[in-house]
Design goal:
Radius of gyration: 18 Å
Helix content: 55-70%
Number of helices: 6
Structural class: mainly alpha
Number of strands: 0
Length: 130
């Protein structure tokens, strides 16, 4: 006897598959918005036009050495946001930056405004690897 799936289980599987299939596209669009908000100078080739015209996340990799040297001149909220973005790209250098700016846990993201919190949350939700 062949087992069958209930309609609700099948619908849930289809929904999960579709959500997972779209995750890279959603991640990229969210990443692009975050890059534009954090400052395109710190990503890709550093030009705003390149950030808006990029076709994939690889074109918008963070310039970690530049960020590490510039982060001290940023406001605390800007520091936390850009460090969070770096940590999405590279957990080691991002983790170091987060600790450097005083982030010890998720509650420390409370310094971010709602827009930045939402972007970070959506990056986590749609993350499918770098």
């Amino acid at each position: 006897m062949t087992p069958t799936l209930s309609d609700s289980v099948l619908a849930e599987l289809i929904d999960t598959y579709q959500r997972d299939a779209l995750a890279p596209q959603h991640f990229f669009k969210t990443w692009q918005q975050a890059v534009l908000l954090a400052g395109p100078v710190y990503f890709g080739n550093g030009k705003r036009a390149s950030a808006t015209e990029a076709q994939d996340k690889w074109e918008l990799r963070p310039n970690v050495p530049l960020i590490e040297s510039a982060i001290g001149a940023m406001s605390h909220g800007e520091q936390v946001f850009i460090a969070a973005l770096v940590s999405v790209y590279d957990d080691e250098s991002g983790g170091r930056l987060l600790r450097r700016v005083g982030v010890n846990g998720l509650a420390d993201f409370g310094v971010l405004d709602m827009r930045r919190r939402t972007l970070v949350a959506n990056l986590i939700i749609h993350y499918s690897g770098w």
